[in-house]
């Protein structure tokens, strides 16, 4: 419904509201759970798509793009590391998408909700911290930057790809 409203498809949003309101009245808990599952799948699916698409032969890996924004042209060892790190993040997002399903089928009752309620976010933070330490061990003789600088570079990379040109407007 949020997509319909954001895309200004008012007829679709009205139809979705008419269909969803009775569901939310009669089964509020189930609709809340379904909504959380959809948001989880869409957000991680988008990250999987973005990181995975950047691994195509005609593209540059996303982590390499961010690193080159911060450091300029990359050395060969750093380019290999950023390519491998992009692959690892892609695998992380794929595993994060599959984990709730596997826990639902194979785990104890209710454990499938752990990734949706912050477990994946905690694992991503842990992964970032561990990767930061590994990066400093693997890449020597290099001036590493803070996480704040990296996030600012990622945001500027995203903003530059989202800017429209005069021909687009």
Automatic annotation (TrEMBL):
Residue ranges crossing the lipid bilayer per the database entry: 33-51, 84-106, 112-130
Entry keyword Membrane: yes
Keyword terms, alphabetized: Membrane, Transmembrane, Transmembrane helix
Protein name (database record): Putative membrane protein
């Amino acid at each position: 419904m949020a997509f319909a409203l954001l895309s200004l498809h008012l007829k679709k949003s009205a139809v979705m509201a008419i269909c969803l309101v009775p569901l939310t009245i009669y089964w509020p808990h189930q609709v809340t759970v379904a909504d959380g599952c959809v948001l989880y799948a869409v957000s991680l699916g988008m990250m999987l798509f973005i990181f995975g698409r950047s691994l195509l032969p005609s593209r540059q890996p996303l982590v390499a793009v961010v690193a080159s924004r911060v450091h300029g042209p990359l050395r060969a060892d750093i380019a290999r590391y950023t390519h491998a790190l992009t692959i690892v993040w892609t695998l992380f997002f794929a595993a994060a998408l599959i984990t709730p399903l596997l826990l639902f089928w194979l785990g104890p009752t209710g454990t499938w909700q752990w990734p949706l309620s912050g477990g994946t976010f905690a694992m991503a933070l842990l992964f970032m911290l561990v990767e930061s330490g590994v990066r400093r061990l693997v890449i020597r003789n290099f001036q590493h930057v803070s996480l704040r600088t990296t996030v600012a570079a990622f945001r500027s990379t995203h903003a530059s790809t989202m800017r429209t040109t005069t021909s687009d407007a």
